[in-house]
Amino acid sequence: MPMSVWKSLKGYSRKHERLADLFTLLAAVLFFGTLYLVTAFYAPILGWLKTDTVIHVPIAVIVVVLNIALIYFCLDIGAARFSQEEERCFHTFKGRRAGSGSIGAMFNNWLHHMEQVGRKHR
Asked: Rounded to 5, what percent of the chain is helix, strand, coil?
């Protein structure tokens, strides 16, 4: 997709949160639906792959790659409502950098970090 179309699509999903929610739900349905179909039809799929390996395996690989790309595409559109290009808000919290040996201090730093992130996204 051209970059201008992609930016306008992400901008549209930022303005219409219901559309972004729909794409996030669609990504979850695709992921769990794929898992269900593969586990439910494992034997027929394996039989189909064994009938003509040279042709069917590349087709299966292409289908899997396209499915993963579609899931990421839907997640990217769904997550567009949270991102602002000019605003950076997710940083490493102090407990990972500070090397403090106390678990209580690390938890306190993490809690403070999560409160700061929550304030920026309200």
From this structure: 80, 0, 20
Q: What is the mean pLDDT of the chain?
A: 77
pLDDT at 91: 52
Angle among Cα 12, 15, 16 to the nearest 5 degrees reads 85
User: How many helices and strands (H and E) does the chain possess?
Assistant: 6, 0
First to last CA, the chain: 32
The residues, any chain, with a CB within 8 Å of residue 14's CB and separated by 6 or more, are 20, 80, 81
Q: How far is CA 76 from CA 1, 19, 117, in A?
A: 14, 12, 20
* CA dist., res. 12 & res. 60, Å (int): 34
Instruction: Check: CB of residue 47 under 8 Å from CB of residue 58.
Output: no
CA 27, CA 17: separation in Å to the nearest integer? 15
Environment class of residue 78 by beta-carbon count within 10 Å: exposed (0-12), middle (13-18) or buried (19+)?
Answer: buried
* pTM of the predicted model as reported, rounded to 2 decimal places: 0.59
CB atoms within 10 A of CB 93: 17
